[in-house]
Amino acid sequence: MRLNFISVLILVLTITSVSHTQVITERYKDLGEIYILEIASAPFPHHERINGHTYNGKTYSQQEHYNDSSVVVFIPKGFRPTAQTNIVVYFHGWNNNIDSASAQFNLIEQFSHSNKNAIFVFPEGPKNSPDSFGGKLEEENGFKKLIDDVLKILSEKGKLNSTNIGNIILAGHSGAYRVISYCLSLGGLTPNISDVILFDALYWNTEHFTNWIEDYRGRFINIYTDKGGTKNETDKMMNSLNTKRIEYFKIDEVELKRYHLLNNRVIFIHSDLTHNEVISKREQFLLFLKTSELLTIDK
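-> structure tokens emitted (299 positions)
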């Protein structure tokens, strides 16, 4: 199906065809181009969820919750292909999916308004399931395989000049901490990761983030709440950074200014908002992207 101002690509590499076109394409058609890819390197299906996942006595089946290999790719209006492609990758949290998270948190709108010359990549995770498992992205070089496949497809469609990977921003909410941590530690593209943004998501695997901060020069942003379950782990991480003598900046969100994000590398933001408000209530994703070092679109 082709609509004005938007192209939709469906590459089916799985038996089950899952269409997000009606949900995704209509909402964002005036902001740029949406591609919905179904690719073998997507997080799911995965053999560790062949029997589904049981949580609190309820089983979430493989067929319904772990069989969607969709990856949404958004190319903003004005995007210009360059020798290397910069990428913003987002991961949703528990009991969510790429359609609902995009709409609930205005993800593509915020990315588009950041005016960054990059593409937005949003893989489907555990779909509508209380699960943080990252599927194939927890395997060695799994993240690289996904990004390579995305860029190869877009290059073949004439949207990119090359398949060379530039800077990558990893962002995610809540249970997304786990897949992001494995992308950092095993994904095969760690030197390319310029920013890590955790939206009330620091629950575990904290050493993966601390090691990245210690070994690389990228920017780390952790926005956390009092009741989201991340405050204690955030305090532990700050104590660990103190022990390692790694400088960081801590501030309440109501006092946060643009220059704080521009002038600090490791940033902890304590928010007065709820767990689900820290992504878009104050257009936080937009602000964090605008203050990144990714090149902007010339208009």
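The radius of gyration is 18 Å.
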